[in-house]
Amino acid sequence: MSDRSTHHEPHRHDHGDHGHAEHGHQHDHDGHGAGRWSQFRHQVGHLVKPHSHEAADKVDSAMEASAEGMRTLWISLGVLGLTAVLQAVVVVLSDSVALLGDTIHNAADALTALPLGVAFVLGRRVATRRFTYGFGRAEDLAGIFIVLTIAASCALAAWTAVDRLLNPQEISYLPSVAAAALIGFIGNEWVARYRITTGKRIGSAALVADGLHARTDGFTSLAVLLGAGGAALGWRLADPIVGLLITVAILAVLRGAVREVVARLMDAVDPALVDTAEHALRAVDGVVEVGELRMRWIGHQLRAEVAIVVAGELSVRDAHRVAVDAEHALLHAVPRLTAALVHADPDTGHDDAHALLAHHRAHV
């Protein structure tokens, strides 16, 4: 009975403004007065802060997440930019190729805030008849730009290190080089913590990945200390060799970034999210079985499409109620899920409720 399947526009729920425990459902059954007071508090609470099911509330939440991401990007851009400038001054004075490679990488990492910032701005735009899912995919395009930037910085650092191996030069101001390396580590680690924390809070995989990238940059800054130490001991090749080691480290970061970006472009999600969604759906009263479940990230927002099986004798209204309950359970159980489309199939035993579509599936 495919005509009884339930398709509906996703109801949006503002999870940040209300937890289940905040509705005052824990009533005091020891006295009727206390129970009435609890109920009164519950009603007043809904007047002051309603249990929101409006799409606009979720849009506001998404915009706040984008604004927080933008704020993180600009602050981290300023910190990394200042770090790169301080290191660049020491590079000019010391002529250290290892520090040059680290400075280039830090500057490139700072500039990755620009495409991500553009992506966050585009992601705020509402969906259109042409872009029906909105513009969240701009974050994935920014991820491609970030990968290309990392690759370019890697190539430049490698070329500079090889040139210095072939044409060794003395390094001066070794204490300044060591200090600049420590500045690079401190700046990158602070930015890494900031980006990762914000990225996890707003559900932006791109921002989390960029934070991990900054953390790796911090440790490569410490590697510059090895070059300075070797040069202090009279080993002239220590600086370009460490420059090559930093290039290898950048390649490792590039590999991880490519894997992350490609996975996002291929609509990969954490299998644990799928397990969480299935568990939540099976706990919904009226859900007989969970059928096809698909999830995808669109920017830093997660969407789901699922088919559930309900009792065949249910009316259209009751089947729709179960579908809404299932969507509600998903929105509360799955972090960063902003929309879910639930399709209700009747339990018809061995009969295929979608037999009419079988010949279309055969050609897929």
Structure, explained:
This protein is mainly alpha-helical and 364 residues long. Helices cover 64% and strands 9% of the residues. It contains 11 helices and 3 strands, in the order H-H-H-H-H-H-H-H-H-E-E-H-E-H. It has helices spanning 32-48, 55-94, 97-111, 113-123, 138-166, 174-202, 205-232, 238-265, 271-282, 316-333, 358-362; strands at residues 289-298, 301-311, 337-347. It has a 3-stranded mixed sheet with strand order 1-2-3, covered by helices on one side. A hairpin with a 2-residue loop joins strand 1 (289-298) and strand 2. Helix 2 packs antiparallel against helix 6, helix 3 (97-111) runs antiparallel to helix 7 and helix 9 crosses helix 10 (316-333). The longest helix has 40 residues, at 55-94. It starts with 31 loop residues before the first helix and ends with a helix. The model is unreliable at 1-60 (pLDDT under 50).
